[in-house]
Amino acid sequence: MLAGSRENAGWVKNLNRTPEVSMRISKHSFIGGARVVEQAEEDALARRLVVSKYQPRESDDLSDWGRTALPVAVDLSSETEEVILEVRNEKAKENIMAAEIGRDDYTLKYVSLAEAKNMSGLRLILGAHTIPGPWREACKSIFYVKKIPYTPVVSAGQDGTDRELLEWTAQNSAPVAIWNDDRPRSTWIEQLYLAERLQPTPTLIPTSIEDRSLMFGSINEIAGQNGFAWSKRLTMIHGTVTNPQVDEPTRSFWLNFGTKYGYSAEAAQAAPARMVEVLHFLGARLEQQKATGSKFFIGNQLSALDIYWAAFAALVQPLPPDLCPMATAFRAFYTEKNPVVTTAVSPALLEHRDFIYREYLELPIVF
Predict the structure, then answer these.
(1) Strands laid side by side in the 151-153 sheet
(2) Helix 188-198 and helix 134-145, axial crossing angle in degrees, nearest 10
(3) Nearest alpha-carbon partner for 68 in 155, 163, 3
(4) pLDDT value at residue 196
(5) Residue 65 pLDDT
(6) For 130, which of 189, 226, 269, 367 could close a Cys bridge (C-beta 3.0–4.6 Å)?
(7) Which range has the worst mean pLDDT, 21-30, 189-198, 268-277?
């Protein structure tokens, strides 16, 4: 466990006063002794494991928390460890029976940040997990359409923090695209222009200024600050931190994550209306295009806007498991449940997502 408030956290104070704790794993309850982690190797391992478990997207947004929080461990007896092993075996069998997909059940061959720095060609820092973060999937898809091969790279360093990522890219989010010795590109618009430079055809940027303005403005409404995905993040954070069943360490983690998005209860309450506004705009645009006989958002050919909507549609309804083998635990989290938002998702929007994936993008999605 990690305590963001360190020794000032209420639950850490309780553990320091009374280290004897009880814990529940599956259907079994155990007794153990809690302690603050002090040994360096165990400290690094604890931070890496906890950050890996709770990281909600392809980036290392919470690595500051993972680096500065206080690690706490619970020591169990040897008899308890034997029971836990049995429980894990039982759970593994249950997962297989239920075809459950774990967060770490990825198939791409990721290299470390240190390895990637010594490589040439295109490297995409994605983060190694089975979560269809829309920025990540859109970036991958742009280069897939261009038929530009890339090396996938993890986002966490050897110590489980963002130190190596910050040293290389001067920021702590993924995806990041790096070509040879060029500067790292960490924003969607830079990544798109890099792809256009490396492979001009098929072009994903319209030639006319009117269409370019429409495309870039629309993608910004989907992927930019205060846009569709930004607002979705606010609702996800709010739903977690206000859930009385969520434990304090998890709640603290998400509150810290929320600082990146300017989270507040007021901002979260306003977020669905912004999502609906964007969905209505995109739906209306498709209807206009349909009337002209086009299946695309702009003109009569594929543009980056089509790809970005296809990837970001996962935030309302992910593709089915056979096409999107994402972590089972995250599927419900991604699926939109607010009826105010779901009623704004026209059938045409999901049909367009399916069409773009079926005709142009990689299926099933590869993590």
Answers:
(1) 151-153, 122-125, 176-179
(2) 10
(3) 3
(4) 98
(5) 77
(6) 367
(7) 21-30
d(CA 359, CA 225): 30
- What residue ranges do the domains of the chain occupy? 2-97, 113-198, 209-360
| Tokens read off for 274 | 């912004």
